[in-house]
UniProtKB/TrEMBL annotation:
Family per record: Belongs to the phosducin family.
Domain Phosducin: 38-201
Sorted UniProt keywords: Coiled coil
A Pfam entry, by short name: Phosducin
Gene for this chain: Pdcl2
Protein name, as recorded: PDCL2 protein
Stored Gene3D superfamilies: Glutaredoxin
Organism: Pterocles burchelli
Gene Ontology BP terms: protein folding
Coiled coil regions in record: 46-73
Family annotation (InterPro entries): Phosducin-like_chap/apop_reg, Phosducin_thioredoxin-like_dom, Thioredoxin-like_sf
GO CC terms, sorted: cytoplasm
Length: 243
């Protein structure tokens, strides 16, 4: 029976030997008519590119011209938004004189991440390498770096690396020193997670990449504590009782 719901009939339908069931036909027919209806409902200019619009401009009435202008403005705003989202995409070097313009006076809807560094410090070079990768991954965020002495005088080297996170001209978070930045063995995913935690970027990482290491360290500390506790109890047992 070709109309029977069996696995074999499903295989035959999939192979095109049997025709689709009536229900499937109805769904396809309904989808087809819906698409045609939507296409007919579209204004002619919504299906035209820029050159076609220019050629057909004289054929439209006043209402259409107003609608076309609104449509153009909408597309222009979408294009500007896309351009703004893609305008950065690299870790740029600035000097102290550019700090106010590039950081403090950045657009209010843009996150700014600036790394104050020294070229001779290995940790700084590692952070710069990671930030360069993150700048490509998150082109809507402004990533900057500046040699420390050009921005802040008498800043102690033990505070390197320093990562400052800005939004609307204000510092939203600071990562100061090797430990806060993630340590000498920092991985790019770990730095991505840190920046996502303070809201500067929208990461697709599902959990802290350093979670397993933290758990292992916690477990190790617990094991050491338990071992020391056991040794203490054993020592107490071994002590002679003086009466």
């Amino acid at each position: 029976d070709p109309n029977e719901d069996t696995e074999w009939n499903d295989i035959l339908r999939h192979s095109g030997i049997l025709p689709p069931k009536e229900k499937t036909k109805m769904k396809l027919r309904k989808w087809f008519y819906t698409c045609r209806k939507k296409q007919k409902a579209m204004k002619p200019y919504e299906r035209m590119n820029r050159e076609e619009l220019k050629e057909a401009e004289d054929d439209f009435d006043e209402a259409d011209r107003k609608a076309i202008e609104m449509y153009r403005q909408q597309r222009l705003q979408e294009w500007k938004s896309l351009q703004r989202m893609q305008k950065y995409g690299e870790l740029r070097e600035i000097c102290g004189e550019q700090y106010v313009k590039e950081v403090t006076n950045a657009p209010e809807d843009v996150w700014v991440i600036i790394h104050l560094y020294q070229p001779s410090t290995p940790m700084c070079l590692l952070v710069n390498e990671h930030l360069n990768l993150l700048a490509r991954k998150f082109p809507e965020v402004k990533f900057l770096k500046a040699i420390l002495n050009s921005c802040i005088q008498n800043y102690h080297d033990r505070c390197l690396s320093t990562i400052l996170v800005y939004k609307t001209g204000e510092i939203k978070h600071r990562f100061i020193g090797v430990a806060e930045c993630g340590g000498m063995y920092l991985k790019v995913e770990e730095l991505e997670w840190k920046l996502a935690e303070v809201g500067a970027i929208q990461t697709n990482l599902e959990e802290n990449p350093k979670k397993d290491i933290i758990n292992m360290m916690t477990l190790s500390v617990q094991n050491i504590s338990a071992h020391e506790d056991t040794n203490t109890k054993s020592s107490n047992v071994m002590k002679p009782h003086i009466t």
